[in-house]
Structure formats: C-alpha cells, structure tokens
Design goal:
The complex is a heterodimer of chains A (616) and B (376). Chain A has 616 residues and is α+β, with helices and mostly antiparallel strands. Chain A contains 22 helices and 21 strands. The chains are: A alpha+beta (616), B mainly alpha (376). Chain B: It is a multi-pass membrane protein.
Amino acid sequence: MDRKFAIKDPLAESRLFLSRIVTAFILILFLIVGLVVRLVYLQVVGHEHYATLSKDNRIKISPLPPTRGVIYDRKGRMLAENVPTYSLELIPEQIGDLDDTLRRLQQLLNISEEKIDAFHKLRKRNKSFATTPLLQNLTDEDVAKFAVVRPYFPGVDVYARLVRHYPYADLAAHVVGYVGRISEDELKKLPLEQYRGTDQIGKVGIEKYYESHLLGTAGYEEIETNAQSRALRTVSTVEPVAGSNIYLTLDIDLQKIAYDALHEYNGAAVAIEIKTGGVLVFASRPGFDPNPFVSGISAKDYKALKDSEDQPLYNRALRGLYPPGSTMKPFYALAGLEYGVIDYGHRLFCPGYYKLPNVDHKYRDWKKWGHGMVDMNEAITESCDVYFYDLAMALGIDKMSSFMSKFGFGEKSGIDLVGEVDGLMPSKEWKRRYRNQAWFPGETVITGIGQGYTQVTPLQLARATATLANYGKVVNPHLVQEIITPDFAAPPELRIVPDIPLKPANVDNILRAMTNVVHSQRGTAKLIAKNINYQIAGKTGTAQVFTVKQEEKYNEDAIDFKMRDHALFIALAPVHDPQIAVAVIAEHGGHGGSVAAPIAAEIIDAYLNQTGEAAP
Amino acid sequence: MRHEMRDEQFQTPSLLGNLLRKLHIDIPLFIGLLMILALSFVILYSAGGQEVAMLVRHASRAGLAIGLMAVLAQINPRRFQTFSVALFSVCVLLLVAVAVIGQISMGAQRWLDLGFFRFQPSEFTKISAPMMVAWYLAEHSLPPKPKHVMIAAGLLLVPVLLIAKQPDLGTALLVASSGAAVLFFAGLSWWFMLSAVVVLAASTPILWHFMREYQRNRVLTLFNPEADPMGTGYHIIQSKIAIGSGGINGKGWLGSTQAELDFLPESSTDFIFAVFAEEFGLFGCVGLLLLYLLVISRCFYIAVQAQDTYCRLLAGSLSFTFFVYVFVNIGMVIGILPVVGVPLPLVSYGGTSMVTLMAGFGILMSIHTHRKLLPV
C-alpha cells in the first residue's frame, strides 16, 4: 500500500510498542539469569579449583615452537638443517634487578654491549613471562661456567634450541636464502598466533618464498607453577607440528662446478632441465655465508658485506641486468624466419660496417674487415653483426619486441624466489611511455645485436634457451621439486603459459647454426668442442659495458678491467634430444667464447655424465 | 531560629531536585548512572594498580560525558528527529573518509585526525544509526512493511560494513544491534525475524566455502579462543581463574591477586569485570547486574512514556543497546562469548565509549523531560 493511504493508528502502535518492550525486558531477564548461572558455575561450583590455581599455583602457558622444515637438493643433501645449540635466555618477570643481573652476566661471559642492546629491544616486544634470548651459540665452556653460578641467577637459564644452519654456506646462499629474527615491520603484518615461540622468519630465497610451508604449527604447554614461578607439572600439552620438508630441483654438485668455474669472475650461471623446468644450477658469484644472519649478524659485518664492491648480497642470477649482446641473434634469426622476412638461405655482403640510408653513422662489425658474403648459418656461427643489423631493420622493432616477449624477455619468469626483476625488452610504446621520446631507426639496428636498451637476467636467458630447445613449448623455471608434509607430498603448482607456435623446420635450422657455433671450424665457441662425444648448440655473446667511439679502436690491454666487456654464453645439449639449457655471464670476462663457454661446457658435461647421455 | 534551620535543611534536597528538573535531568536515571560511575572509580583504583593519575583521567572523561549528557538533555527531541538524516549522512561520509585514508596508509584505521583532535566516527554511528532507522520507520505506519524493513536494513548495512572493514567487529556488532533493536521495537513480524535467522544460518556454509584458509582460521579463533592460548585464549583462562577464585564473597577490595600479579591482561579496560568479580565475589556480581538492570528498567519506562513513534523507537533502541554492551562484555569475560573488543559500559577505563553512552542517556532524558502534558 502506498504511504498516502496508510493511516497511522497511534493507539495500536503504542500497544504494539508496549508488547515489544515487555518482550525485550523478559529476554533481558533471561540473559541476565544466564550470566548469573555461569557466574555461579565459576564462583561456587568451580571455586575450589580456581582458588587453588590462583593461590598456590598458577597456570602458565608456554609455547612449543615447531621444527622448521628441512631443505634438500634433488639428491637429498641437506641445504638447510636444524642443529641443536645452547642459548642463554632470561625471563624478565622472575628477575629482581635486571640491570644488575645483566652486568654480572656480562662479566662472567664476556657479552658485548651490542648484544645487551639487542636483548633490551627484544625484551620490550616479548611478554614479561616469556623467555628472551641474550646469547646464542654458547660454547661448552660457557655452558659449564654458567652452570656453576646458576643458583645466583634466578630467571636465567641455558636452553638447548634448534638453530638453522646452512652447511653449503656461500654456495647455495642465493637460492636457499636464510632465516633471521622477525623485524618490527614484519611483526606488524604477521599472523601472531602462528609465530608464538618462534622468533625467526625466512628473509630471502626459498626460506622466504616457502615460509608458510617451512614454518609448521606451534604447540603449547599449560604448566602449573608455584608462587616462585617454578614449574610443578604440565597440565596439558598440544604438540607442535613440524614444517614441511622441501626438495629442490637444484643439484648441489652441479652448483659447485658452476660456482667454482666462475672462480675469478663475478657473474652467474643458470642451468634448467628442459623437460621439467627444474632449475639445476642457480649460481651467483660472489656468494656470502648466510649462517651469521641466523642469530643476528653484527652491524659491522653487515656493513662490510653491503658496501663490498663485488656486492656479494646481490643475486645476479635472479636480479642481475645485463645487455644480452649476441646471445640474442639466434632468436632474432628465428623471428626473421617465422615472420617470413628472410629465409634461411638469404645471403648478405658484410663489409665490416652497416649504414642506414642517408646517414653517415657507421654501425661497426666486431670484425674490422668484415665477414664477406654470409648466409644465416654463417652469420650465427661467426656472429656477424652486419647481418643482424640488416635483419633488425627488415623486422622492425615492433615485431622484434613482440617475438622476444613470447620467450620471456622483459617479464618475470615466475620462478619461486622473491625479488625477480622484469628486465627490459624495448618497444616504441615503452620508449614513449617511460622516456617520452620517439623511437629512432638507429636504435632498432643496435637492438638487433642485443645492445641498446635491452636488459636481461641470466635466468631469462636460460629460460629462453630452454624454450627454444623445446621448440616453443614455454619452460617455466622453478626450484622446488616437492614439498613433503606428514600427510602428503605435493609438487608446487606451475603456472600455465601458452606455447609459442613455431615451425619445427625453422627451429631445426637455428639449432643447426647454433651447433656450428660450437662444432664448426669457424664457430666462435669451437674451443669447447674438444673431448666431448655429444653435440652442444650454443651462442656466444659479448656485451659492451661502455661504448667505443667512432673510428676508435677497442684495445683490450689498455683499458681497465672494470671497463672490459661482459662475456656471455647460452647453450643447450645434447642437440639430438635437448635435456639441459644453460646461460652463463662472466662480468668483464671479455669474450663469450673463451671465458663463458667453457663454464657452460663444464656444467653440461657433468650433467650429461650423470644422466649417462655422455659415454665416458 | 531553630525552626528556620529545620526548614532550610528540609528544602535543600528539593531545591536540588527542582534545579535538576529545570535542567531536564531525569533524577532516577541520573542516580543509577552515578552509582555505576562511583563503583567504576572503586574498581579502577584496584585494577589499575592504585594509580591516582588514572583515576583523575577517568574522572575528567566522566565529567566530559556528564556534561555532554546534560547538554543533549536540553535539546528538544523534535530537533533530533529533524537532524537524523543529516547526522547519519555525515557519519557515513566520515566512515568513508576513514576507509579511504586507511587504504592509503595500508593499515587498520579507526581514527580521523583533524589536526587539533582525533576521533572515531564509528562511535557517533552508535547513536546516529538508530536515529536514522527510527526516523525512517516513523515516517511510515507501523508495523513496518517488508519493503520498508529491507530499506532500513540496507541503510544500516552501510555503516556496519564500513566499520567491520576497519576492522572493528565489536563496534560493528553494536551498531548493527542498535539498528536491529529499532526494527524489533517497531514491530517487525516474528516471521520476518525467523526467516532472517534461517537465511543467515543457511548462508554461513556458502560464505565459509568462499573464504580463504587464513580467514577461516581467524573465524575459528574468534569462536574458540582456547585455540590460541598465547593470545586471546590466555585472557580467557586467566580471567576464569580470577573470577572463579573470587568465590561467593570475593577477596575484598584491593584483594585481587591475578590483576596485581599482572596475570590478567587488560585488567582495567575490557577485562575489568574479572577484577571486580575476584574482589567482590558472586554477591558483588549479582549486585552490579541488578544495578545495570535498574538503569535499563528506567530507560524502558522512559521509552514507554514517550509520546511519538520516533522517540519511542529511539529510546527503546538506546536502552537495549546499553544492555547488549553489558551482556557482550561480561559474556566475553566469563568465557561464553567470543572475544570482541567491547568495554564494560561506564566502568572500563579509556576509550570514547563512555562519552557515547552518556550522550545516549542525554537523549533519553531529553525525550522524557520534553513531553507535553496532555489533558486527561
């Protein structure tokens, strides 16, 4: 009925209201009686029980931290384990004069002021009845020293705790990462009930990415204590549930070979198992020892690591951005074939330089007098720059950019590590948006040999190589093979990326040319073809760190080491049935063929020897 | 001389009474409130570790609250009715502002900082929401038609969701119940209430299905505090020990050991009832509950005496919400309700809830003292 026609009936309304008030009042009476019944239950029926708890004994609840999941490599070797250590911990509530106690402990055990400050910081965060660690990794001698005087230190005790340890130290630090004390910022965001009794959290690497799996579930004990806070008995216990163990796809043997092979160079090596996407090698050199981070690295040591010129904390494999140089050439060649811009037999005369029509600027080849007449096979084998300058102009930056994006350049691979970067595959649109400038043809020319704006990570290079070897079926790199919980074993979910539609004949041609890079007399990486009974397909790259001026000669001996070119190499093997794809970058290595290729070859050889592909 | 003195003595109380009546103060209600407030000082002195500075702050807050109550009592309820929509709109806008600012600063946000002072818009909503619903329903004939019920519920849902998102479940619950109370007093049909309950119960599993695991865990902890014994569960375990150890007669004033030994967290704010129960026992608890019942009874009396629909509905809702406060807080402290942050009305230390509550009582007094005397 419309409002106009609704007639208010004040008497009926007021009668209705009165009945509702009475109903509400009865409801309130019922609820109050309910409260009183519960109070009687607590204060009369349960009085004796609670009075005992309150007067002579008290209930304390202490958390039982879960054991953190162990991280293994693919062959079951422990990369992150838990080792028992002794730690000196205080319960502030039970200590009368805290400052005096700390002073006496300082004299006894030689504790630095820094440790005391850290303790005070922690103490303010903890509840006063919770134990707060003062000193960790006590030596047996310290433990013995304290044991003698223990009666004089109420509220102070030595506890055996499990502490994270990384046996391979710097070798796997950039993969496994490390745990550290929960910071103030993290504390604000954490689901606290899951972190009771735990003061450690994954900070980087697998430790961080899989934190929720590794952590486990905290348990607790209800303990009855007397008036002096001494534990009398455990009333009830809920056992903690250990975190899941994690198996990585990483092979620590191969990792060591790669890491050692890089020895004098800073750089990175990434190897991917093509069929699965499992990352076999993820080396970034220099590494660092993650163990000091576990119990809190000293400010001085941290500063030293942070300020080091070699940047050991920097994960080059994941975050290092490098100009890819000539390692891009096979991909652009494939783009030329796929778009039908040129065919495999297309020939071109290389005079040692390339010029755009009506422009004087000379784009030079690395070989001063040129390669002469070359076809695509020779252009890849000998790494002819002019051929690719010409191809780039034929393709245009739009096609180049969209083709390379399909191989994952310019975007994150989605690997299970935190902090991956996008890299950069330039396009007209990118330049307009971020540089607010038009795209110049000259920029297309140098993009054709992997110079200019293009920036890639070693991981992206390895992934693109694996995808090429897989004939366009995109490889999703990942580090975790299996997460093992008490109930079930689960492999991590992989994301699904559409395949790149490629003509197998075109890929065959590119792989043949890349095989010639290694196995032909004129190949830029022929050095590594010795002593192997299988075939490797690869491509060298030399990335300019600084630009050589026109008409100036690049003199290797005369320039400072830090100005020398980066050496790159991408490879896949064996050619007839590709199993492994590798990307190596040696910073300031000079030449891809002589420095980076041998490192890749060592990794490939070791892997194929394991799988039996390479006959001894 | 003697005679006059006696006269003066005799007149003093009635003089005060006249003054209060002139000031639109309802004397029985005011006495009830003062008794609860007086008790709050007694408990707080013990629960707060006998700190006088705390009492002073409590007193200044109580003074402010009583002042606001007195001011509101002067205003004719017609004005409240006229300004209901505007007040409600301002509250919702402020809540949106808080949500937006909270979004920007990436954290839970309840306060609006105006530079010179900060306040919680959600507190005002506790009064403006029932005003709005009462205004809307009073525009139509009662009992409300389904269409009007749905619209009223929709209006109510806006601030409730905004507050729940802050997240402040306790306040959201109180605002929702204050609006629901208006609907109930307006004569919402029993069938409607029953079907609302059925729909809510039926939608729970569906909602559950769409929640992420961590959200489910949070809900489980809310309803089963013992699952988190180091956090809220610890509160419950310790408050049960405090209450139970109080027994029938209590340990006497200042006799609380649990609060004194810092075993009982939040002992002067949300869990202050546990300290009271420990010190004054079952007798004290029943006494306090009776005191609350007394205040609620007087409020209901005022509601029944009110002369128009708007005043009735608003008075009924404010009174009922006061009880919801009491019930949710005590229910939580004695471990029969989940732990949500609701203080014990007029007793707990801190927060702005006392000011809002007294403002509500001011409105009730205004309703009662501005009646027109009708010829019989």
